[in-house]
């Protein structure tokens, strides 16, 4: 029970309360299901004695006021992502990618066709069957993979750079269970990263802006691909357990990746929260926009409550499903099973 009926609520997670405290007329609480969080207002408190027509209740504020309040979390995520990138630019510099000819071979599996026919880790493939590979980018990797898959038990000629020498290697791909060819290597674009640091404040903002918009485009493009190719991408959707595992791995590798990971995480949260789904900020915004389109007439209360309740239930069950799936995919869990 809130002592002051005009208190707001700041929650981490959903479900039953595990712990809570009050500060500056705000009740903070930790919930049982660690799936994000939310902010509650006196409007949502069934025990509140504030009159339902009080003009200071959020639901009675003008439409623009409500849009600003509901959008605050999304705006905070976007600003925080920008500040993270700005901090990276000033502190460690911005990674710049420089592309080189060919495709790099970081790993050759033992007893594979590539190992048997003389390909070594660290080699750079310059040509495949006489066709020169593009400089950098994923296209060169895709070109090699396509040729290998289409050539089971048929000789494939690779022009390889090793140290300061260029020479040709003939490799005969093994046949996969599905009839395609494989040679047992890991491939990656032949790129190298260097660091650039700004020489002035204006240059720092310029670097930050370019990186921020680049990351934002990647997030939006990933969301588009998920929607358009859901059957192929659904298995790649991750929950909080996988995100923590990836973050821990990035933190162990290098500080640059940690900056990028934190910025991407905030941008993803901003985009997902804007989706017009019940229980998300975007869902609340959708209700407000519907109200505006109806000339200020709200949807019936029971309709709104029904949609929001079903949305919260869906989010909880989806979150629990992702937690279980991601936990079972952890390496030490796989070793136990």
From TrEMBL:
<dbReference type="InterPro" id="IPR004387">
    <property type="entry name" value="Pept_M50_Zn"/>
</dbReference>
<keyword id="KW-0645">Protease</keyword>
<keyword id="KW-0812">Transmembrane</keyword>
<keyword id="KW-0482">Metalloprotease</keyword>
<feature type="transmembrane region" description="Helical">
    <location>
        <begin position="67"/>
        <end position="86"/>
    </location>
</feature>
<dbReference type="InterPro" id="IPR041489">
    <property type="entry name" value="PDZ_6"/>
</dbReference>
<protein>
    <recommendedName>
        <fullName>PDZ domain-containing protein</fullName>
    </recommendedName>
</protein>
<keyword id="KW-0378">Hydrolase</keyword>
<dbReference type="GO" id="GO:0006508">
    <property type="term" value="P:proteolysis"/>
</dbReference>
<dbReference type="InterPro" id="IPR008915">
    <property type="entry name" value="Peptidase_M50"/>
</dbReference>
<dbReference type="GO" id="GO:0016020">
    <property type="term" value="C:membrane"/>
</dbReference>
<dbReference type="Pfam" id="PF17820">
    <property type="entry name" value="PDZ_6"/>
</dbReference>
<dbReference type="InterPro" id="IPR001478">
    <property type="entry name" value="PDZ"/>
</dbReference>
<keyword id="KW-1133">Transmembrane helix</keyword>
<keyword id="KW-0862">Zinc</keyword>
<feature type="domain" description="PDZ">
    <location>
        <begin position="92"/>
        <end position="133"/>
    </location>
</feature>
<feature type="transmembrane region" description="Helical">
    <location>
        <begin position="306"/>
        <end position="324"/>
    </location>
</feature>
<keyword id="KW-0472">Membrane</keyword>
<dbReference type="InterPro" id="IPR036034">
    <property type="entry name" value="PDZ_sf"/>
</dbReference>
<dbReference type="GO" id="GO:0004222">
    <property type="term" value="F:metalloendopeptidase activity"/>
</dbReference>
<dbReference type="Pfam" id="PF02163">
    <property type="entry name" value="Peptidase_M50"/>
</dbReference>
<comment type="similarity">
    <text>Belongs to the peptidase M50A family.</text>
</comment>
């Amino acid at each position: 029970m809130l002592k002051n009926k005009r208190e707001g609520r700041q929650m981490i997670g959903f479900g039953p309360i595990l712990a809570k405290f009050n500060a500056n007329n705000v009740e903070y609480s930790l919930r049982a299901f660690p799936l994000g969080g939310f902010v509650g207002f006196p409007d949502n408190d069934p025990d509140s004695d504030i009159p339902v027509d009080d003009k200071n209740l959020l639901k009675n504020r003008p439409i623009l006021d409500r849009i600003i309040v509901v959008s605050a979390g999304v705006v905070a995520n976007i600003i925080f992502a920008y500040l993270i990138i700005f901090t990276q630019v000033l502190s460690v510099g911005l990674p710049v990618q420089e592309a080189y000819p060919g495709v790099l071979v970081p790993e050759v599996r033992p007893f594979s066709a590539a190992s048997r026919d003389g390909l070594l880790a660290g080699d750079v493939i310059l040509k495949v069957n006489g066709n020169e590979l593009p400089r950098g980018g994923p296209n060169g990797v895709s070109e090699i993979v396509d040729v290998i898959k289409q050539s089971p038990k048929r000789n494939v000629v690779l022009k390889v750079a090793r140290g300061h020498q260029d020479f040709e290697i003939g490799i005969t791909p093994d046949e996969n269970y599905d009839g395609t060819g494989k040679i047992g290597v890991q491939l990656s674009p032949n790129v190298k990263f260097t660091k650039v640091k700004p020489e002035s404040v204006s240059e720092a903002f310029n670097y930050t802006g370019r990186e921020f918009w680049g990351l934002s485009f990647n997030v939006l493009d990933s969301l588009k691909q998920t929607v358009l190719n859901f059957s192929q991408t659904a298995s790649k959707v991750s929950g909080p357990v996988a995100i923590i595992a990836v973050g821990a791995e990035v933190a162990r590798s290098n500080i640059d990746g940690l900056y990028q990971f934190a910025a991407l995480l905030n941008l993803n949260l901003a985009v997902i929260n804007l989706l017009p789904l019940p229980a998300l900020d975007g869902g609340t915004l959708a209700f407000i926009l519907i109200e505006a389109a109806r000339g200020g007439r709200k949807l019936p209360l029971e309709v709104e409550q029904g949609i929001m309740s079903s949305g919260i239930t869906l989010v909880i069950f989806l979150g629990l499903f992702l937690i279980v799936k991601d936990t079972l995919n952890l390496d030490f869990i796989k070793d136990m099973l």
